[in-house]
Design brief:
The structure is a homodimer of 306-residue chains.
Chain A (H helix, E strand, L loop, with lengths): L2 H13 L2 H8 L3 H15 L4 E4 L2 E4 L1 H28 L4 E7 L8 H12 L3 E7 L2 H9 L5 E4 L9 E16 L3 H4 L4 E2 L8 E5 L8 H11 L4 E6 L2 H9 L5 E4 L10 E6 L6 E9 L5 H22 L1
Parallel strand pairs in A: 3-4, 3-5, 7-11, 8-9
Antiparallel strand pairs in A: 1-2, 5-12, 6-10, 6-11, 6-12
The structure holds a DNA duplex (30 and 30 nucleotides).
DNA sequence: CGATATCCATATTTATTTGATATGGCTTGT
DNA sequence: ACAAGCCATATCAAATAAATATGGATATCG
């Protein structure tokens, strides 16, 4: 059985005569008669009654005709779904976030834009630690990950730099400098404070940037604690264990006992934002997402410069 | 596009290598590669990524694979539905009844047997006057009709005689003979009574049989009323307008003011039962139904003789 | 590290199958 | 009775699918 048989069958059934159906199909009558007969032979069912003035569907033929239309409709559907998938307009995309990434306004903005542009993509979002995200990326459990810092071993991965943001200092609210109602403080003012830093088990994280900024400010910070995630550093600050430098967008996370102050540079330590993907990932959905990300980054910088 | 392309595509997708898929399909590798490429060209979509160790589905290919299975499932379904229809195991059948027919135990029995044997046939049942039923039959609104009497113009129709039943007399309950608690009475006892007979606008109906029986009993009945349906004669009997002869099965219709008495023949007037169908109706569903009817008639006569 | 095996792609030839042409038989309407 | 319309069959031509032969790329093994 081939689709040709069904196509011919439909034409004959609808026209009621083989000759006219052959015209409609752009062919001659005899081969059409043969193909219809071949279909009947394969099904072992008489589909038409041959009448002097044409042919007439049998009950069985009527049954087949109804289903034949449905079959072609389904094939059309399958084809357009396949094409949409190839164009990246349909399918699935899994994205990961490190805990602080969603605070950066760029991230929710690009997700929103992408969802609006490609509503047929089923988007899966997952939060996780940077190391875990990179593993998931390599294992193809996710297709992209918003992370802060560059990664130690970029082998096979590709990193897209996104707009970075300033860091601010998070102080316990009973800190001497927290009482003063100033908008910004120089980094050097915290030379004596214990620092709580975010450093993941392997790799640099934001750690190096902070140390470097302190050095540039003329002191070596005293590291009191290390926390595995940026968000958890705030808990330690709140407990009064020290101060911390966190991305400015974290200020949206209001927390009892924590006060934020901008840093009056230079040096102005910055928190990067990156999108990690697999190098050589051919997924069209991802390709579209990267387009959206690049566009959003351009728009974002434009907004910021205004 | 032909189904061949989809068949080949499924084989390659499932095997993961063209060579092995070709073996499974009983063909060589090069033509298979070509057909896959032809499918990709028609869709204008890359379905596989060629790898050194085989081929790998793209996202678009995965989409198509899922749908391809569904397409073949639907085709299988269409084919078996067509075959079932051809065998008369699936489809539709419309039957008509004259009002008194369903009282004859044969009729519900054969309907039940047929429904049990062919549950996939959607059965439509309709009641109507004999003339109306015959018209419906000719117009192909129904496929068969259970009627009592032979029909005037059997042109193009076929009549199957079914087990006939005795007629009984229906008396008003205040009739002199109704008071006497006898099981059966001779027809001659009603020589003086006004008769209510069933006669349809055209054609003989049961009328002729009744008249003939009376003549055989030695009198000419006095016709007081004619009623268009057998059942409505009972209303007239109940009203005391006369007596009527009705099929014995009508006794199941208990009616205030009506008493039934068997007739002590000879002569014993009989009520026939017939199944009318279109001559040359090729419907397999009808063919099966006629089989069931013939079988049921055989069983019925066997039961009666026991 | 070179040799080999594996696998897919391309080119060419062969085989199959589809479609076209010619023709005949049947039914209906004039 | 004859002509027109329609489908079936037989034969021939064309298109297309499949087979064979071969080459190129990449991993596997000695």
């Amino acid at each position: 059985m081939e689709l040709r048989h069904l196509r011919y069958f439909i034409a004959v059934a609808e026209e009621g005569r083989v000759t006219r159906a052959a015209e409609r199909l752009g062919m001659q009558q005899p081969p059409l008669s043969q193909q219809i007969k071949a279909l009947e032979r394969e099904l072992d069912v008489q589909l038409f009654r041959r009448r002097p003035r044409g042919v007439e569907l049998t009950d069985a033929g009527r049954t087949l005709l109804a289903d034949a239309h449905a079959i072609f409709a389904q094939i059309d559907h399958a084809f357009s779904a396949t094409r949409r998938t190839a164009r990246g307009e349909q399918g699935e995309l899994s994205l990961g976030f490190t805990s602080s990434a969603p605070f950066h306004p760029f991230v929710p903005r690009v997700i929103r834009a992408y969802r609006d542009a490609y509503p047929l993509i089923a988007l899966t979002l997952a939060e996780g630690g940077t190391t875990e995200l990179i593993d998931s990326l390599r294992a193809e459990r996710i297709d992209g990950a918003f992370i802060r810092s560059p990664i130690a071993d970029p082998e096979g991965l590709s990193l897209l730099r996104l707009p970075e943001e300033a860091m601010v200092v998070a102080l316990p609210s009973n800190h001497a400098l927290a009482r003063r109602r100033v908008a910004a403080l120089p980094l050097k003012a915290f030379a004596a404070d214990p620092f709580i830093v975010y450093r993941r088990p392997s790799g640099p994280g934001l750690y190096d940037g902070i140390i470097a900024a302190c050095h540039a400010a003329g002191f070596t910070p005293r590291i009191a604690q290390e926390a595995p995630r940026i968000v958890s550093t705030l808990n330690l600050v709140s407990a009064g264990l020290g101060i911390s430098l966190v991305p400015a967008s974290l200020q949206r996370m209001r927390m009892d006992g924590v006060v934020y102050r901008r840093l009056k540079g230079p040096p102005q330590p910055m928190a990067p934002l990156n999108l990690a993907t697999r190098r050589g990932d051919t997924s069209a959905a991802l390709r579209r997402f990267l387009q959206s990300v690049r566009q959003a980054a351009k728009d974002f910088r434009l907004d910021a410069s205004v």
